[in-house]
Amino acid sequence: HHADRSTVWVGREGRQVPIGPDSFTFLAGPCAVETAEQTLESAQMAKSAGATILRGGAYKPRTSPYAFQGLGVPGLEILAGVGEATGLPVVTEVVDARDVPVVAEYADMLQIGTRNMANFGLLQAAGDAGKPVLLKRGMTATIEEWLMAAEYIAQRGNLDVVLCERGIRTFEPSTRNTLDISAVPVVQATSHLPVIVDPSHASGRKDLVVPLSRAAIAVGADGVIVDVHPDPETALCDGPQALLGSELRELAQAVRRLPPIV
Ligand code: PEP
């Protein structure tokens, strides 16, 4: 029931942003933190389009070990600095339980990615970190398994968990993964946790980000998280799914036109 659904607050006292049933939260930023300039430009684009939380990866769990793996701690420093400069709370992925303390030092919210959804030691460490957690659905995980992963965090006393549907692996090759849009209302019928949608990583295609965001709004998601880049052609990670400023504004208009379902 709407009234029983939780709101998770992200950011430090005085500039906290809600993710929950009373708002539609727009999170945006670069897939990967590459340089201070690229991160700042991405954050400014995101903010001027209406995003209220900045995303950006400093640790990138790539399919190929030869692909760009992220800047690590220097990337966290850039992200936190840009968050400070723009006034946006930041969410960033942690891929190794040993890195949880340092990521929690810089980030306002910890992200657990699709490849680590069932990494129980990492979930427990994130649960102990004292920061809200964005838990992406494993690309081969059932909804039940995803909710049980959230329980690993909750069991440590951290109920500030936001679920993120980011596509599942199917036989369809036109998109990188298949956005399981029905997961949003299914989760909301069983869990009090907020649930957002990542159309960028689900599809891997920027032309699908606006239509899939509209679908997310239509089914009652609590927000969307999208990739942006000032120059997607040179992006070190996932350029084909990153939006430019003009495309981001189109998304923002779509988001504004469709108020959240209450
Ligand atoms: C990301 O958001 O940067 C990411 C790698 O997403 P996912 O874990 O959903 O692939």
Automatic annotation (TrEMBL):
Entry keyword annotation includes Transferase: yes
Keyword annotations of the record: Transferase
Organism domain of life: Bacteria
GO biological process annotation, one example: aromatic amino acid family biosynthetic process
Iron-sulfur among keywords: no
Domain DAHP synthetase I/KDSA: 16-255
Annotated signal sequence range: none
Protein name stated in the entry: 3-deoxy-D-arabinoheptulosonate-7-phosphate synthase
Organism of derivation: Nocardioides lianchengensis
Full-length numbering of the shown residues: 76 to 337 of 349
